[in-house]
Amino acid sequence: MMADPATSRGGPLRAFSHTGFRLFWGASFLSMSSFFMVSVARGWLILELTDSAFMVTAVQAVSMLPILFALIGGVIADRMNKRVILIASDGASMVFVFVLAVLVAMDVVEAWQVFVLALLSGIAFALALPSRIALVGDLVGEADLPSGAALYISIFSTALLVGPGIGGVLIDSLGMGTALFIGALMVVPALALFALLLGIRIPRPATAEAPLSKRSVISDIAEGVRYATKDHVLRVMLVLGIATSLLAQPYQSILPVFARDVLDRGADGLGMLVAAGGMGAIPGSVTVAFLNSPRQLRSLIVVGGIGLGIAIILFSLSTVFLVSVALSFSLGYLFQIVITSSFTVIQILTPAHLRGRVVSLRLVGHGVAPLGMILLGVGAEYTSPVQATATMGVMALVAMTVIALAMPNLRRAQPARVEGEAAPATLEVAQREGSEVSGPD
């Protein structure tokens, strides 16, 4: 797996010099575009079926609840071929979307069916997500990991721009059933690219202890937990993930209600709001790709986290569609720099053979997002979507400010040691080994 030396020196895009990463990026982009398109369609479908803000947030919460299985997914990622896991996950998700499309086309769909299929899709996605993230390091190597991590997270932002925008237009012009069929078909070329990825040779990292296949799942999970909790930087990243998911992310689930009831728009307006978030997330990923020295990563996390709370409050108060679109763009940018920076730090500080499990711990933080969505939905039912979202924004601002005050100096951060293994490099050393991508510190 040789990289073109010229491309390797090309800065933040150098991960694209690896053939495997290019295939992976393309397949993941198609897969995630379908995922976000279907997510938007599902929210709009539930709004039409129930006319309830709570039910709209609830169906999004149900689809995210299985992220709690990420710990098991982390073990699976470290035990099995990650590429096979992704093929199985995307294949299952495609089937679930086809089933929903058939139910809609036959005009027999009911809310409970949407919830069940959302849950099944969420399980397939959650079990494979640690494999998706951990595969980046396998494909690009340690030196190009900062570039690979930022470019991988950019998939979510790019797909968030494309998927919902296409979905909103298709729902308005061709109907919900056709939109869902197209969303499912988008996964087919993704599966083909993942199949090509099977031909890329990936060296298997040596483990510090016995092979994973000879140990219990519990002991595998415990090893990852021990590593993550011994390191102060990783602990803060885990807390950051919980706070972001519980207090900042839930606003996304109530966007269908804002589009229809606050901004007086249809499915196309919802698509524009979600797509604006994806458009803002793209420069967010690029920002982290350029500014990924230790001091810069810390600054991005602090500024992005505090900015998120402020932007959510402003978004909740806007009644002008174009202003809301602009604020959605800002939210996408801020959310992306926080998420990308934190995942970059985690991957840099974690050895390859533990990466799936430590990443899964970070993903479990996303498991609290459904709780935040439910709380937001209940608040919207008993007060109003505006008041409930503004309250969530205030809580996010307070939490992010507290975390910012507790944020360690990443330059001096020393990762925890895995028993029986030499201590891994500090974040500063890891960054210096791949320093071509870093901007001025």
Considering the chains and any ligands shown, give keywords for the structure.
mainly alpha; disordered C terminus; 441 residues; globular; 19 helices; Growth Hormone, Chain: A
Description:
The protein is mainly α and 441 residues long. Helix 5 packs antiparallel against helix 6. It is built from 19 helices and no strands. It is globular. Mean pLDDT is 79; it is low at 1-9, 206-212, 412-426 and 428-441.
> What percent of residues adopt helix (DSSP H or I)?
over 70%
Poorly predicted runs: 1-9, 206-212, 412-426, 428-441
Average pLDDT works out at 79
CATH H-level superfamily: MFS general substrate transporter like domains
The top-level CATH class is: Mainly Alpha
Largest sheet: none
Q: Figure out the total of helices.
A: 19
What is the N-to-C order of secondary-structure elements (H for helix, E for strand)?
Answer: HHHHHHHHHHHHHHHHHHH
Radius of gyration: 21 Å
Number of strands: 0
Brief sketch in words of this structure:
This protein has 441 residues and is mainly alpha-helical. It has a single domain (11-197, 216-435), classed as MFS general substrate transporter like domains (Growth Hormone, Chain: A).
What's the SSE blueprint?
Layout: H1 5-8, H2 19-50, H3 53-64, H4 70-79, H5 82-105, H6 111-140, H7 145-174, H8 176-185, H9 187-197, H10 217-230, H11 232-248, H12 255-262, H13 267-290, H14 294-317, H15 321-349, H16 355-364, H17 369-382, H18 385-406, H19 427-433
Helix pairs in contact: 2-3, 2-6, 2-7, 2-8, 2-9, 3-6, 3-17, 4-6, 4-16, 5-6, 5-8, 5-9, 6-7, 6-16, 7-8, 7-13, 7-15, 10-16, 11-15, 11-16, 11-17, 11-18, 12-13, 13-15, 14-15, 14-18, 17-18
